[in-house]
Amino acid sequence: MDKGNVLVYYGDGKGKSTVALGHAVRMAGQGKSAIIIQFLKGKNDGELTFFRRLEPEIKFFRFEKSQENYDKLSEEEKQEERMNIKNGLNFAKKVLLTGECSVLVLDEFLGLLDKNLITMEELESLLLAKSDDTQIIFTGNVMVESFRSYADEIYRIEAEKA
């Protein structure tokens, strides 16, 4: 593993989360630990059940409570989920501060920036909590230009034929 990498997978194509999960599985195969925190996606109980089978090497968390995707929620539901998202962000920072894992996947995190659910200051605070030995992988559909300078590697995933 490269020391302290910040990787980004973004684009409209499918497979960004799958690539990030592949990194987590590879680290687990090397005896390291991974944590995946997923944002902005509705609950998928079948997916959650599968991910739970990967524990303890790969731990999976979702702080949002809604079954629906964030974009489909009412304003009142979105307000409640914003609090849950902040809890997920605080948890991610705690994970980084304690060095709890070798790789931290923040799935659909770029959407939080794109939708202005978190600030660049919150992102910076999160990255400052990271040790040199921890790899962070961010995924999402839209690459916010102001985020580019924080990433060591950026990969755009797009469908060539759909």
**Can you summarize the main beta sheet?**
6 strands, parallel
Quick check: average pLDDT? 90
Rg, nearest Å? 15 Å
Q: Number of helical segments?
A: 5
How many DSSP E strands?
Answer: 6
* The CATH homologous superfamily: P-loop containing nucleotide triphosphate hydrolases
What is the name of the CATH class? Answer: Alpha Beta
How many separate domains make up the residues?
1
What's the overall geometry? globular
Q: Calculate the terminal CA-CA distance, rounded to whole Å.
A: 33 Å
Q: Strand sequence of the main sheet, in spatial order?
A: 3-2-4-5-1-6
Structural class: alpha/beta
Binned, the helix content reads 25-40%
**Shape-level CATH architecture:** 3-Layer(aba) Sandwich
CATH topological fold name: Rossmann fold
User: Secondary-structure element sequence?
Assistant: EHEHEHEHHEE
Q: What percentage of amino acids are in beta strands?
A: 15-25%
In the predicted model, the low-confidence regions spanning at least 5 consecutive residues are: none
Task: Note down, in words, how this protein is organized.
With 162 residues, this protein is of the alpha/beta class. The chain has one domain: 3-Layer(aba) Sandwich (Rossmann fold). It has helices at 16-29, 45-52, 75-98, 109-114, 120-128, and strands spanning 6-10, 34-38, 58-62, 103-107, 135-140, 153-156. The chain has a six-stranded parallel beta sheet, with helices on both faces. α2 (45-52) links the parallel β2 (34-38) and β3. The longest helix is centred in the middle third of the chain and has 24 residues, at 75-98.
